Amino acid sequence: MAYNLLKGKRGIIFGALNEQSIAWKVAVRAVEEGAAITLSNTAVAVRMGEISQLGRQLNAEVIEADATSVEDLENVFRRSMEVLGGPVDFVLHSIGMSPNVRKKRPYDDLDYSLLSKTLDISAVSFHKMLQTAKKLGAIADYGSVVALTYVAAQRTLFGYNDMADAKAMLESIARSFGYIYGREHNVRVNTISQSPTMTTAGSGIKGMDSLMDFANRMSPLGNASADECADYCIVMFSDLTRKVTMQTLFHDGGFSSMGMSLRAMDQYEKSFDKYRDEAGNIIYG
Ligand SMILES: NC(=O)c1ccc[n+]([C@@H]2O[C@H](COP(=O)([O-])OP(=O)(O)OC[C@H]3O[C@@H](n4cnc5c(N)ncnc54)[C@H](O)[C@@H]3O)[C@@H](O)[C@H]2O)c1
Which GO terms describe its biological process (predicted)? Predict the structure, then answer.
């Protein structure tokens, strides 16, 4: 259902790779809500993924950019202003990648040059995006910028590896830049902390199936889907949230406030089943 929440607004969506991508869902919803957008991803992603098809579907130009390159980002903002007819009102940063995770390097045996890449792609790119946009005047006053994050930035979750450090930095950049951009241009900068979601990036997380099941059992509302995340992004881009800034906004069905739930406890207790005697007592020895 569309509410015209973004009628007349212009935006840039970074990070749509395929139909599973959270950014893909956000792009579709943004256009449904009346926005005109451009899409951006790396040259490899444009070649290997399905973003060109999405561009045709949404009448959105696809602009190639490596988000670690300031020059590429300048081009995205300049070109977007050209094709959309002025500064943009919203930007989505939906970018994450850890070469250490890809190469299965555990957290206590990280390759430091790969760690630099993780941080550059997944966190510093957000600063580069904001700084570039601000210098070019590419985000209109009262605009809204959202980046996607994960609860592992604040609490330790098995297997999230150096992406946890990248997300902690991403959330910090949202606060630090949000102060300056808010003060000078009323631009708000937030991160949305999303439930585990089965996407290309998500499936790289160690034990993703179990993690999703655990998070789902722990969350009173269950895991938030990519479509639901898109809805939340739209609200954050709309004029209904003009005084929300510098926040990590949890979109996780309640997971981040839980300690233990009945459904998770029930599953946990099953792990003792094989150690019960005939009377049902747990055998500890
Ligand atoms: N899937 C989850 O469980 C989950 C949970 C919380 C947060 N997130 C975050 O959501 C965001 C989107 O991920 P997703 O789950 O939709 O997966 P995805 O794989 O569809 O999206 C990740 C995107 O990052 C892009 N990317 C990688 N390196 C880049 C670079 N150098 N320059 C520009 N783009 C680059 C990829 O091409 C891809 O489009 C990420 O920040 C991710 O960490 C995901």
Answer: fatty acid biosynthetic process
Nearest partner of 218 among 250, 265, 251, judged by Cα: 265
Phi, psi of 89 (to 5 degrees): -100, -20
- Residue 178: which CATH number? 3.40.50.720
Can you tell me which residue has the tokens 């893909």?
24
pTM: 0.96
d(CA 140, CA 134): 9
Whether 150 is catalytic is yes
The verdict on the CB of residue 200 being under 6 Å from ligand 1 is yes
Total tally of structural domains belonging to the chain: 1
For the CA of 67, the closest atom of ligand 1 is 32
Q: Is residue 60 part of a domain?
A: yes
List 112, 160, 179, 284, catalytic entry: 160
What string of pLDDT tens digits covers the 285 residues of the chain?
899 999 999 999 999 999 999 999 999 999 999 999 999 999 999 999 899 999 999 999 999 999 999 999 999 999 999 999 999 999 999 999 999 999 999 999 999 999 999 999 999 999 999 999 999 999 999 999 999 999 999 999 999 999 999 999 999 999 999 999 999 999 999 999 999 999 988 888 878 999 999 999 999 999 999 999 999 999 999 999 999 999 999 999 999 999 999 999 999 888 777 777 888 887 876
